[in-house]
Amino acid sequence: MKIKTILITTTSFLFTLFITSCSGDKTEEEIVNAKDTTQVSAEVQKESSGYETFFQVPSPGEMLSFIKSVGKRDKSKISILNPTENINKYTDEKSKALNFGIYSTDLSYCSIFNLGSESIKYFKVVKQLGDQLGLSATIKPEILARIEKNIDNTDSLVVITDDLYYSSFETLEEGKQGKVLALVVAGGWLESVYIAINMVDKFQKDNPVIQRIADQKYTLENLIEFLKKHEENSPDVKQVKADLEDLMKSFNLLKEEKISDTSLKQEGSKKLIGGGINLVIDEKVFNEIKTKVLKLRNNYTQNQ
């Protein structure tokens, strides 16, 4: 399975894709020992034309793959996805772009969790919205044939849907559709966090999924900064940025705990030696984040 990370530049919308795994599902040990890309702040790269800021945002599939790796494989959770019937509610550009991101994440979920028949349904709504956003050349009908051919092959489905996700980004980049791109990324990120939250049946401080949710604070910081670059000429982006800034207030309640170089850090069933910062989340803050994520996601999917 390919897990990719997006580097978004603020001037050219360039996307650099990093593959951290070439084939097969990642084991829990591989994921735990991999660099946590959600914890990388914005980087500034000096070029001949000046300074260019890069914002790193992981693909939704990265979060979903982690959830699966730690044993969360409950197929009954299909009910948490945005129903495909909701597509008729999305008539404006904002709702189309946000829900293109949301449905793309749902498609990734279906692929990663081996829900082949559902993958077909979600591909169709992703294509329908993609066509309306100018992505017809990217989301081609023959991709559906590939999905149908590989309906029982999880690894192949993940490769197909992952490539589709990034090809869509590249098309938006080339078309200079920065505001649409910002909304798509926001919708995809929100849905991945929403799914993760719904995988938590009961708060437990040492639950690796809960810790991964806490770590999304760093990703959210990057995402908000990216949205700021497109809010001036887009009331839609400005509103979504305000929504996420409100959510950020709750993430800012998380406490930072310094980890010494010689200390043991618990991650799931693995203990790692290393220094850095660990975000400490308690049940109260988790529930506050959960409430805001659920409300925001409901507003976007219901087009309120």
How does this model look, in words?
The chain is an alpha+beta fold. The chain has one domain (74-301). It is 53% helix and 14% strand. Mean pLDDT is 77; it is low at 1-54 and 269-274.
Keywords summarizing the entry:
single chain, 304 residues, alpha+beta, four-stranded antiparallel β-sheet, two-stranded antiparallel sheet, disordered N terminus
End-to-end separation in angstroms reads: 36 Å
Major sheet description = 4 strands, antiparallel
- What is the H/E order? EEHEEHHHHHHHHEEEEH
Total beta strand runs: 8
Structural class designation:
alpha+beta
- Unreliable stretches covering 5 or more consecutive residues: 1-54, 269-274
- Radius of gyration, CA atoms, in whole angstroms: 18 Å
Number of continuous helical runs: 10
Overall morphology: globular
Task: Give average pLDDT, whole number.
Answer: 77
Helix content: 40-55%
- Into how many domains do the coordinates divide? 1
Strand percent estimate: 5-15%
> Strand order, biggest sheet?
2-1-4-3
Outline of the structure:
This protein is of the alpha+beta class. The chain is built from ten helices and eight strands.
